[in-house]
Amino acid sequence: MTSDVDVVYVHGLSLLNRAIELFGKGTAGAARHGFYLESVSSGLPPLPIGYQSRCVRIPGSLSVLRPFRPEIHDLAATKLARFHTRDREDLTILCDTGELDPDRLREVVDLAFTFADDEDPRRYAANANLTVVIDYLKGRRKKL
Asked: What is the rounded average pLDDT of the residues 140-144?
């Protein structure tokens, strides 16, 4: 289970700032729910171009907030540059759903680094880690 929920900001921050005040790290709201909200820029981790149009609505009866989650390939792409233990755990779960397509994942990673040159260390790391994930998906590795 995650300890935080990343909230990607693109437009105005007033509603997000209020949500962080109420449910950010160390708040009573976060303690009550067992996780906290953390704001992240759409550039870190890099989200693939067009991710917003592919987001999937999270079901629920909320009337003010309408939360969405990234499409599974977009979400997987955000984990590849850092590739820390929790990222690998998340990627393993995503891979094990059977919904990740290696070719689509490669396309989405390219979209995430459209404006980075080939020498960019984050792009290089993401592509190297992508190879590891694809090997796992194809059964050539036992774990990430």
From this structure: 94
Residue 121: which residues within 8 A CB-CB, separation 6 or more? Answer: none
Q: What is the pLDDT of residue 17?
A: 84
| 61 and 17, same domain (yes or no) | no
- On the question of pLDDT at 134 being above 70, the answer is yes
Asked if the peptide bond before residue 45 counts as cis, ω within 30 degrees of 0, the response is: yes
The verdict on 79 and 104 lying in the same domain is yes
The verdict on 50 and 29 lying in the same domain is no
Report the pLDDT value the prediction gives residue 28, as an integer from 0 to 100.
95
